[in-house]
Every structure is written in C-alpha cells, then in structure tokens.
Amino acid sequence: NAGVTQTPKFRVLKTGQSMTLLCAQDMNHEYMYWYRQDPGMGLRLIHYSVGEGTTAKGEVPDGYNVSRLKKQNFLLGLESAAPSQTSVYFCASSGGLAGVLGSYNEQFFGPGTRLTVL
Amino acid sequence: AQKVTQAQTEISVVEKEDVTLDCVYETRDTTYYLFWYKQPPSGELVFLIRRNSFDEQNEISGRYSWNFQKSTSSFNFTITASQVVDSAVYFCALSLYNTDKLIFGTGTRLQVFP
Fold it and tell me: Which among A62, A69, B96, B101 is placed 20 to 30 Å from B29, CA to CA?
C-alpha cells in the first residue's frame, strides 16, 4: 500500500497563476483533508470531505477550492495564486468516525507539497 | 472555542537526557480525542498516539510515555533517554467527538545533540 500520496512534491508559481494539487489514498478511507503548514502556525485545515461527492470548509478556506469526484482522490485548487499561499500543503485521510467511543480513526498524512508563489 | 497550546517553541537536549513536551488544550466538550504527531526533518507527519477523554490512564510505549490529566487539561509527552533520531517537530492535536477535524498546536521543535 502506498498510503497517501501527493502530486507534485514541489511547485513554484507566479502570482495569478492557477494550479491543482492531487491527493490520492489507497486505504479506502471515507474522509480526506487538506491542511497548510506555515512556520509558527502548526497545521490549519483548509477543506475536508466526508465522502465521495462531498466537501466542506475548514478553518482557512479562502482562495482555495476542492473536489472529491472519486473516493480515492481529493483535489485542491488555487484559482489565482497569491504570495500568502506560499506554504507546505498536506493531505490526510481517515476512516472517519466509527461512532463508538474509543474507536476513533486517526488521520494518515501524505508527504506534503511545498508551494512557493512569487 | 477549542484550542491547543504548546508553549515550548524549541527544546534542546543532549542525548540520553529525558525531555517532556507540554500540551495544554481547551474545550468545553466532555467527549474529545487527543493526539500526538511527530514530524521528522524529512517532513512527513507520523501518528504517535490517540487518547479519548474518558481514558486517563497514562501510556508507555518503549521510551515514549504520555501523561493525560483532565484536571489541568494537559496531555504531556515524555521521551526517556532521548536519542538523536528523536529530533523532530512534535505536534499535539485535539478533535471533538463527531467532528473528525484536528486542531493542532503550533508544535515543539526538539533537537537532540550527540
């Protein structure tokens, strides 16, 4: 099993350009997430999905869009990149809520994508 | 509001020293989950432990141990006899029941020198 993979690993964009980050998981997980990590800020949730065809906003959704057309993939899009979006982006997946106390499923993270917007 | 505070930004120790990483959380919910993740220099995030709010038993896994105290809203992480390979950023995180969203602290960078 590859677990959670992210494409690309590195990318440099100019202000105003667009791009899509791809996250794929092979664990048949229901839930998927996109985080950004900035120095001194920890990880902050951008968007997440609790199943194929569903998406929801996280803590810092502005400037990003997402889609979950297939259960195994979760795409993060930047329509018009800004320097403030320079960050490391992490995708994660989990089995979701088991509904039974003590059987909560932890999140598994991808290796990250380092994005620089000039 | 929910919050996780890791007041220690950076800790440096010499190999074989014991070190404790502090984590204080805030929530009004009675059911929640606490996590620790490790981020080594390679950048990936590695899951270390999960606790639910009804299980205050301390946990030990090799050189790692965790102390969960609801009375002080703390979930501290101790590494015994630290090694150079323990050098990493460690994140504490909180999730509420039925949300499945993680709220991360800002992390503590641990440097273990030989």
Answer: A62
